[in-house]
Amino acid sequence: MMAVNMERFVSEAKGNGLRALRELKAGEVIHSCEPYAFCIAKDFLKTACQSCLKRGESLSRCSQCKTARYCSAQCQKQAWPDHKRECKCLKRLQPRIPTDSVRLVARIIFKLLSQSESDQEELYSIVEHQSRKCFICTTHQALFSEGECYVLSEMQRYVSHSLFHVFTQVTCNCFSISDGELQDVGVGLYPSAADCYSPCLLMFQALTISYTDILATSKERRSHLQQQYHFLCQCTRCSTEDKDCDMLAGEKTAWTSLRDAIPHLEQLQSEQRWEELLKESQAFLHRYADVVPDRNIYVLRLLDLAMDACISLDDYETALEYGSRALESYKLYYSDPHPSRAVELLRVGKLQHYQGRLEEAQGSFTQAYDIMKVTHGTAHALTNEVSRKLSECQAELGRV
Fold first, then answer.
1. For residue 167, which of 181, 155, 157, 179 has the smallest C-alpha distance?
2. I want to staple 216 with a disulfide (CB 3.0 to 4.6 A). Which of 164, 220, 261, 369 is the partner?
């Protein structure tokens, strides 16, 4: 049965959408649904449960495919209906692991083959999603890499559904699945929750979600959206090129060097080579301190990388220095209420609390809570964690 606070509609310019039938309050849940299908991102296959997405370092591995991991026997049993066909394919491909998109396509097809008509989604079914085949065929010379073609041919042994059609649907409509701290641990398809374009309207004012990284210039965002989702973004930020001057502030030759170095530094981060990451990040930050300000997006990324390295190396004082510098830029680029700023405030608040800077920590936790009660909801585990931290600070300040 359709939710009573909205209705389906079709916009000639923007595709399928949902429209509010009453006034909605900030922080109110408009619609909630489980993904039709999802898979763990390749970088988190060893550390995230394939059923509940809980993170851990000692997860049990599937004895057959050696790829899927679970935090408990219950989770493994619950995931088996979606994993059993996938398991055979992954076992045949050992030690190779298909890309996230290929694994998601396989899961969707396996579910389509076993689904009855009564299992259809309430708002939008998967067959109603636009696949944008025409755009993909004309903008991509080759949709599949050689490796992906091999994987898909292996899947074809088990399925007869149109792989290309589903692949194009996934390309245009899938969402990243993030944990409470906004780390992208997976990818999924939510037929009821989204189409290629604007998801809903409220009193003729669009409520939109960001399909790309906010910390990128207008040119980069539009280019990514055109390639991935095949539309030209006309939002205010992209149309006016708002914040671009701040994002690329400073001497161009200097921030170009920073931009080019970041992929290597992110690789060090993914490999947990913390000492190397910290040494190289600090060298860049010191070298260009006088010519590129903290609000430059590449300096901001360096500050985040250096902060992560310091925390991993138990250098909390230096981590707090980098986190405090980054907060100013987060405030500039992430307007309230935005979960990214709340998570950064929580991280900084924890460091302030550990350092005994209780009044500063109380301020950070208060700001984080005010944002998270809207973006995450008061029942969310992360919101509750912030609330506990805030109470601890207030209690400790009361004893001083």
1. 155
2. 220
Residue 129 in any domain: the answer is yes
Q: Could you tell me if 130 and 201 lie in one domain?
A: yes
Contact 373, 23 (CB under 8 A): no
User: What pTM was estimated for this model as a whole?
Assistant: 0.71
DSSP sequence for 69-90: EESSHHHHHHHHHHHHHHHHHH
User: What distance in Å separates the CA atoms of residue 335 and residue 122, rounded to the nearest whole number?
Assistant: 33
Domain residues for 217? 211-242
Residue 63: φ, ψ to 5°:
-70, -15
- 302-350 pLDDT per residue, tens: 999 999 999 999 999 999 999 999 999 999 998 878 889 999 999 999 9
Question: Parallel, antiparallel, or unpaired: how do β-strands 205-207 and 200-202 relate?
Answer: antiparallel
Q: Is 246 left (phi over 0), alpha (psi -120 to 50) or beta?
A: alpha
Q: What is the CATH number of the domain that holds 380?
A: 1.25.40.10
What secondary structure, in 3-state letters, does 274-303 show? HHHHHHHHHHHHHHCCCCCCCCCHHHHHHH
Asked if residue 362 lies in contact with residue 393, where contact means CB atoms within 8 angstroms, the answer is yes
Q: Based on the domain organization, do 50 and 185 belong to the same domain?
A: yes
